[in-house]
Amino acid sequence: MEWIEGISSTIDYIESHITEKLTIEEIARQAYISPFYFQKGFAMLCGFTVGDYIRQRRLTLAGSELLATEDKIIDIALKYQYDSPDSFTKAFTRFHGVTPTAARKEGSVLKSFASLKIKFSLEGGYLMDYKISEKEAFTVVGVSKVFPYENAKTEIPAFWTEQHPAGKKPLVCGMYGICIDETLGNDTFEYLIADDYVPAQEIPDGLITRIIPKHTWAVFSCKGGMPDSLQEMNQRIFSEWLPNCKEYEIAAGYNVELYEDPANYPNGVQDENYYSEIWIPVKKKQH
Predict the structure, then answer these.
(1) Diameter of the chain measured on Cα atoms
(2) Cβ–Cβ contacts within 10 Å for residue 172, how many?
(3) What pTM, to 2 d.p., does this model score?
(4) For the chain, N or C: smaller number of CB within 10 Å?
(5) Which fold has domain 3-103?
(6) pLDDT tens-digit readout, 65-114
(7) What's the rounded Cα separation, in Å, for the pair 247 and 242?
(8) Closest-CA residue to 89 (of 50, 97, 19)
(9) pLDDT per residue over 149-163, tens digit each?
(10) CATH fourth-level superfamily of 130-284
């Protein structure tokens, strides 16, 4: 299944099961892609997370029902997967700006978040540097932390800051930033700030090793100051490369970012020529 078609299928699935318990694993299965890359790609394409989309659609529909029916608030809350009237009221008020009770009063104005319609438009026409590379398994050493998909965008930069305090030598330099979701069904994933493992060197306390399996990787070159260059490339991978790639599809729950030594550049990671890479595991499509 093509990437854009897969995203459309997941949206149709979410909309038709919006009043049921939804899991990322089952949603991603509609697109024949791992939950890790589905969530990453969805956010890149749409500008918000899968969880945000589901919440805002449920609250939109719940608001419509409050105005159009005389159903009890508790029944509407349970219908849209809220455990209690209190949790529903808090979420509803944050979204609509009024409580469910107030929403039923004449003249109340509610917000509406429309369902997504994915359209593929012809854009681009410019170059995108990448290569397909076979790489044997390799071992890294670094610091590890588990993150929820929902908050990763803000929590991972904070993790880097925590591991590289100003004026102190970090335990690990940070040649790589690696995301791992081997089970492909969790709401969380492991993230490592890592360097290449050197067997002859002792592993300092607080560090762990991880083996990154043998894979075929699509390697994308990024040039420019961080984090803008990486974020822009990630956006282009999911909005341009994947929809147009006829031979390869994403293969596994790994994502590797490689960073050159900032000391090699006059302005460090903010240098206009700073070089980094994004590695995505791929496999040949079955035609």
Answers:
(1) 74
(2) 19
(3) 0.71
(4) C
(5) Arc Repressor Mutant, subunit A (1.10.10)
(6) 988 888 999 999 999 999 999 999 999 999 999 999 998 886 677 888 88
(7) 10
(8) 97
(9) 777 878 888 999 899
(10) Regulatory factor, effector binding domain (3.20.80.10)
